[in-house]
Amino acid sequence: KFSPEFAAQWKETFRHESGAGYMEMWVARYEEILQQPQVVNYYETFTERIGILLDTMATNSSLRIRCYEKAQSVIATCYDGILFSLFEMEIKQVEERIIALQLSDEEVRQEMERTFNFYRLQEIALLHSEKYAYEQATTTETTEADTLETVLFFYASPENTLEMPLDGERLHYMRYPELSTATHDDVKQAVRKIQHEKEDFRDDFLINFISDKEFWINYLESRYPDIIAEHTHIFMEQMEELEEKKDTIREYEYLIQANTIAEEKKDSEQRLYRQLTKNIVAD
């Protein structure tokens, strides 16, 4: 129904993969959302977005694994939890396409700024929810439910004018907006705050956001293997030299020197990754 390509391979191969059963249940829950009368105006957009995700999963085993894990973590949640997990899976989809070198530099920059918008908005929503829970002295169970609805509200509100991942049609829909502890004005203020942060920090806001992310490191290593290998070669030589004289020095001295080399290598790599990131983002 959603993706002929995915369905054809699901029965034969994917359904036997570890964790695939959770994804199957997640899709079933997602189909339940599509049957809700309130979704009629969003039906085509919902089906299109899940279709794109499943098609990408059909050709990317790493994305399948990450989506299986996400599905397992949210399978018992409410409709809004399932809906929000779709947006999180879509970000994983973008990350995997970046790692696979399928996007141009400009596309990478655009998607990373949208991802920054998503996560920064989520951070502000979580802070809002924590403040509300503290002021109202809510129970843990109530706080968890309120937090989910509040985070989704920040995303779905018409006042969220920030570009979101994949830049698709905006879904201003959630099942239980009345459970959110936020107002549209709260979202408007959050958007304004994020826009000011980006203006103040210019390209640095994006460099700081992505330069140490695991998926981004994987991307840089895939794109610049020779540069990174050449850069780290000196540290590999130092470790080899240290290993050769390991039996001639005290164990304590060996550990101190090995740790020093490892720390210098780590610091050097971080500077290199940041510079490579800057080259992509600032161009």
Radius of gyration: 23 Å
Shape assignment: globular
| Helical residues, percent | over 70%
Q: Find the count of extended strands (DSSP E, 2+ residues).
A: 0
Helix and strand content put the structural class at: mainly alpha
Indicate the proportion of strand residues.
under 5%
Task: Write the element-wise H/E pattern from the N-terminal end onward.
Answer: HHHHHHHHHHHH
Quaternary assembly: single chain
Question: What's the structural domain tally?
Answer: 2
Number of helices: 12
Q: Separation of termini? A: 42 Å
Q: Kindly state the mean pLDDT as a whole number?
A: 89
Low-confidence stretches: none
Major pleated sheet: none
Q: Would you summarize the structure shown here?
A:
This protein is mainly α and 283 residues long. It contains twelve helices and no strands.
Structural write-up:
The chain is mostly helical and 283 residues long. It folds into two domains: 4-208, no CATH class; 224-282. It contains twelve helices and no strands. The protein has helices at 4-12, 20-34, 43-58, 61-74, 79-99, 105-136, 140-156, 184-201, 204-210, 214-223, 225-244, 251-282. α2 (20-34) crosses α4, α4 (61-74) packs antiparallel against α5 and α11 (225-244) runs antiparallel to α12. The radius of gyration is 23 Å and the shape is globular. It holds the Pfam family NEL. One of its GO terms (molecular function) is ubiquitin-protein transferase activity. It comes from Adineta steineri. This is NEL domain-containing protein.
